[in-house]
Amino acid sequence: MAYKYKWVICEKVGKVLKITMNRPEALNALNDALENDLHNALDEGDADPNVRGMVIGGAGNSFCPGYDMSVPEGEKSILDPARYASVGNFLEYWQVRDYENIQHKQLHLFRLSKPVIAAVHGYCMGGGLWLAMACDMTYCSEDAVFAQPEVRHNSNSTFLIPALCGWKHASRWLLTGDHFDGKEAYRIGLVNDCVPKDQLMPTVMNVAKRVAMVPPHSVRSMKRMIMSGFLSYGLASALELCAAMSTLGHASHGPERDAMFAAQARKGFKGFLETRDGPFLPEPMGPKSKAKPAPRRRR
User: Fold this and answer.
1) Phi and psi dihedrals of 208, rounded to 5?
2) C-alpha neighbours within 13 Å on the C-beta side of residue 234
3) CA-to-CA distance for 266 and 68, rounded, in angstroms?
4) What whole-number distance in Å separates Cα of residue 282 and Cα of residue 256?
5) What does residue 138 show for φ and ψ, rounded to 5 degrees?
6) Which end of the chain is more exposed for a tag (fewer CB within 10 A), N or C?
7) pTM for the full model?
């Protein structure tokens, strides 16, 4: 097996394949190239008879903050409806090219024959959280920051989150897009454990190595029983519904979203984020949890 990719680093540690997303300058934000390399590496590991399990992590200071929404010079934002020639083109882009493809990528992890464990540190938001939730197990470090901030610009999350943590907990975080930390993720059942940062990868690799000790046919059949059971419950249909709901969300416009587009035109993506997330500061948890100091009054 070659395991040669541009945007992921693959390393075999015994019978475990460690896959590291490698766009640290962008905090490992997902784009087509990174996603393609990641899923091709997962397929290659799944086909390698010398691999019993796989681990996904992120290089640098973050696991993954979500999909890369930055705008290359000379292009319009993916969120800007003016980019599309017609309403039909707009809907076709979001439902068929984008969100249906995203659901298929989540289900891809379900259908692998070997277990995948996510090792989350730093930001794990948007599509990065979807990726982590689609893994068979997820561990995080105490510096992890989780969120679905896309709900603040007319989008929706994945049904994997309420499926894992329940209706009430999911509603608290998905109806606001608020940040929450690793301890909260563990409390509500989104992750297997939350550990100190220096213990994250040793903890995950130890679990992966223990899985690798089990006969591979047993692991394969056990994973198939677990994942097929959840899909039979209707999880696959719920994920497919996410594509339609996200398309409707992106096709819905109002003054809040118009303000975000206007800020983006003036100040770039930073302006978009300031307009979207500024009213929600201070966040309940995470690096933006502290309120900005109030301006001093002149006497």
Assistant:
1) -60, -40
2) 4
3) 19
4) 19
5) -140, 125
6) C
7) 0.87
